[in-house]
Amino acid sequence: MFSAIEMAPRDPILGITEAFNADLNQNKINLGVGVYYDDNGKVPLLSCVQKAEELLIAAPAPRTYLPIEGLAAYDKAVQELVFGADSAVIQEKRAVTVQAIGGTGALKIGADFLKRFAPDAEVYISDPSWENHRALFESAGFKVNNYAYFDAATHGVNFAGMIADIKAMPRGSIVLLHACCHNPTGADLTSDQWTEVIAAITAGGLVPFLDMAYQGFGAGIAEDGAVVRRFAEAGGPLLVSNSFSKSFSLYGERVGALSVVAATAEEASRLMSQLKRIVRTNYSNPPVHGGKVVATVLTTPELRQLWEDELAGMRVRIKEMREAFVVKLQAKGHDFAFVRDQVGMFSYSGLSKEQVGQLREQSIYAVDTGRICVAALNSRNIDIVIDAIAKVL
Ligand code: LMR
Q1: Average per-residue pLDDT in the chain?
Q2: What is the residue range of the signal peptide feature (predicted)?
């Protein structure tokens, strides 16, 4: 029965890591996947994580099953981080949160949940969006459409196009939005533009699904989360997926969460019962370790402060790399000033697929769309990258 099965294409992002890993060149550079590396080119083990693990090891605990919805302390801490501790949706018990297998797992629980209760709705994602958004919602059974987002001419947001597309969506449509640090473009909305988007979504009876995988990498933890809070205050249904892969450098632990905001506490408890069914039939219940680490850090004041400082350090280093990238290309006669204005880990560099292919011949890996991970640049590799880019331009 397997003989007719065709080879699936490589994943557009993780497939690059596969090709990178297979490259024998010692000086290879991976600007493909969204992973933060420190200035030594290493994925950091944050001190706050290490200290939380020391606390956990000092009080060894058996590995029983977690509840289907995850560790209670984790879910509570995530809710307070995402919506703000004083948020009305928390006080009124209108928000429910389930621990998820990373941000992708959170999106998948949300997609399956929506497919079950809004089977005829269509999903709208930004043009472009994270490659896995389309694949994930399609595999949940949805028709996935684009709304206008990126303007290649300005390297910014085509806001007129975006708002017009949102206003034209049928009521009940699901709109996937990046809460901050848009992946792949690095182009975010201004606060005033968000005001218009929230108004259009509310007036149009649409269902916003906010993906927040990079909280803290834009302007700051609270600043980046502000959009979620504004949507929560606007009333109406809301889904939020968030991830600690990047902000805690816990990629392989797969720690994320899905939060859903209901109209009433009673409705919220019904939603939670359905979310639990989806989790149970997919992977039963989430793993213990990553959730415990994050919960320990978020609820222990010294560790929380340490985390905020370490996250700020990552944010600042990325900004320094953006600046260096612009200045060094400027010195070679190329204007990439727009990279300075982009936020988060990524830049839509404007490099063509052919140019990305030429970079790969020099063992520098980027996504075919021209997305580069600025967080993978460091003081040792940046000149190599700049020279290579200048060569292909
Ligand atoms: C990325 O966009 O590179 C990251 O979110 C990693 C992934 O899973 O694709």
Answers
A1: 97
A2: none
Structure tokens, 308: 């905020």
9-40: per-residue pLDDT in tens? 999 999 999 999 999 999 999 999 999 999 99
- Residue 54 in any domain: the answer is no
- Residue range 265-320, pLDDT digits in tens: 999 999 999 999 999 999 999 999 999 999 999 999 999 999 999 999 999 999 99
257 and 117 in a common domain: yes
> Please, are residues 381 and 29 in contact by the beta-carbon 8 Å criterion?
yes
CA 222 to CA 309: how far, in whole Å?
Answer: 13
Count of the separate structural domains present in the chain: 2
Looking at the CA of residue 14, tell me the nearest atom of ligand 1: 9
Closest of 216, 225, 283 to residue 254, by C-alpha = 283
Do 330 and 340 contact (CB within 8 A), yes or no? Answer: no
Same domain, 40 and 91: no
Q: Are residues 243 and 354 in the same domain?
A: no
Residues with Cβ within 8 Å of residue 146, at least 6 apart in sequence: 124, 125, 126, 127, 129
One domain for residues 204 and 269: yes
pLDDT digits (tens, 9 = 90+) for 189-226: 999 999 999 999 999 999 999 999 999 999 999 999 99
The residue from 276, 299, 322 where one domain ends is 299
Co-location of 40 and 95 in the same domain? no
The predicted structure's pLDDT at residue 360: 96
Distance 326 CA to ligand 1 centre (A): 24
Q: Is the pTM of this model over 0.95?
A: yes
Phi-psi region at 205: left, alpha or beta (left = phi > 0; alpha = psi -120 to 50): left
Contacts of 161 (CB under 8 A, 6+ apart): 147, 148, 149, 151
Distance from residue 13's CA to the centre of ligand 1 (Å): 6
Instruction: Indicate whether 347 belongs to any domain.
Output: yes
R_g (Cα) of the chain, nearest Å: 21
Task: Return phi, psi of residue 332, to 5°.
Answer: -100, 10
Counting atoms of ligand 1 from 1, which one is nearest the CA of 104? 8
| For ligand 1, mutation pick of 130, 178, 253 (most atoms within 8 Å of CB) | 130
* Amino acid at residue number 156: G
364 and 239 belong to one structural domain: no
Q: Which of 75, 165, 188, 211 is catalytic?
A: 211
Range of the domain at 135: 65-299
Closest CA to 168 of 189, 146, 190, 183: 146
